[in-house]
Design brief:
- The protein has a single domain (about 10-209), classed as Nuclear Transport Factor 2, Chain: A (Roll).
- Helix content is about 25%, strand content about 20%.
- The protein contains 6 helices and 5 strands.
- Strands 1, 2, 3, 4 and 5 form a 5-stranded antiparallel β-sheet that branches.
Length: about 210
């Protein structure tokens, strides 16, 4: 089965080993992808554990499950980010010295746009409280668009996320939502957003039922 994060790898070779704890992501993008897959498969314990320690305070698995209730996450698109790739290459070297060197460089997503987002209730009214993207040693930025269905309507979550290294492992800190978040219309005969090369109506559109 193709991984939920829309990589070219099977789930059991991509995000599943991270979610199960068999491996640790070696880059911010890997962690982001695995967090998306965790939302898609309702593995909220993994999502909680991969926040920074600061952001874990006051959160629970129940909070995360509640924030994602009703959403079916089905596709992920990672946008090229020079800052993220360059910092990853630097920090990844330091992680590999303390982690299993066999961790490969395969490469998530959080919550809702019009309700509770990122399990911290990050919504449009309180975006000003979220820090701006950072780019410095032991930190990285990843920009992505995640797609989900809710009440048979299609939505997108476009976020630029901040990640940092804690205790030798990548962790998600927070993010800034873009103005194009929300309900969208997508042509049923267009190529599916998941990158399968199938028409949308023959691919992920079936998951809205």
């Amino acid at each position: 089965m193709r991984c939920y994060c829309c990589s070219s790898k099977p789930f059991d070779e991509c995000c599943e080993p991270f979610i199960k704890g068999d491996k640790h992501p070696s880059s911010a993008e890997q962690l982001m992808r695995s967090r998306f897959s965790a939302y898609a498969t309702a593995h909220y314990q993994y999502i909680l554990e991969t926040y920074t320690k600061e952001k874990q305070q006051g959160l629970s698995v129940e909070d995360l499950a509640q924030s994602a209730q009703g959403a079916t996450w089905f596709a992920l698109k990672v946008h090229p980010t020079l800052a993220a790739s360059s910092v990853d290459s630097l920090v990844g070297n330091s992680i590999s010295s303390t982690e299993d060197s066999s961790i490969d460089s395969t490469v998530h997503a959080d919550a809702k746009v019009e309700a509770q987002t990122n399990a911290e209730a990050i919504s449009k009214p309180n975006l000003k409280s979220i820090s701006k993207p950072i780019s410095k040693p032991n930190n990285a930025i990843v920009e992505f668009t995640a797609y989900y269905f809710e009440n048979k309507s299609m939505y997108q979550l476009h976020e630029t996320s901040n990640f940092s290294v804690e205790d030798g492992k990548w962790r998600y800190h927070d993010g800034v939502l873009h103005d194009d978040c929300g309900k969208i219309k997508y042509g049923r005969n267009l190529p599916c957003v998941c990158g399968s090369n199938k028409k949308f109506k023959q691919c992920c559109a079936t998951k809205s039922r």
